[in-house]
């Protein structure tokens, strides 16, 4: 993309970074190579959360506990999250109930996640998981400079496994300077 300085033959400076002005679905800027899940059923992986079909969704494998780590391509401000029920509520005992949310923590596993204080813990009800319900507002002040989110589903409604139909994360991008935009001088 050429700006006026480049078109005139002069050296150009990168445009100043700007914060995102409107809320977006942050799943569009996930760094998928850095995302992972622990105790996920291979037939129902974390990537299914963003497809938009609750029949596919994500399931845990061995028990109800589940860790979902989502990494973003850039820093974001997270305003709200929305978990959707699996398979339109056909199996309510599989619904997640207690979810701990960690910010900017990499490689958390089951052996150490309970020793780390979460940024926020939410308790989901069946009504919260309905497609038509409002997203859950997060403690916005704690979610201002997020590079990754780790969700630890600690409890469900009593089923042997946990199943989630979908996940939406709403927020804004954060203005940062991309050092790759600067050219070496001299």
UniProtKB/TrEMBL annotation:
Keywords: Disulfide bond. Coiled coil: none annotated. GO terms for cellular component: cytoplasm. Residues 15-186 form the PITH domain. This is PITH domain-containing protein. InterPro entries: Galactose-bd-like_sf (IPR008979), PITH_dom (IPR010400), PITH_dom_sf (IPR037047). PANTHER family: THIOREDOXIN-LIKE PROTEIN 1 (PTHR46115). It comes from Cyclotella atomus.
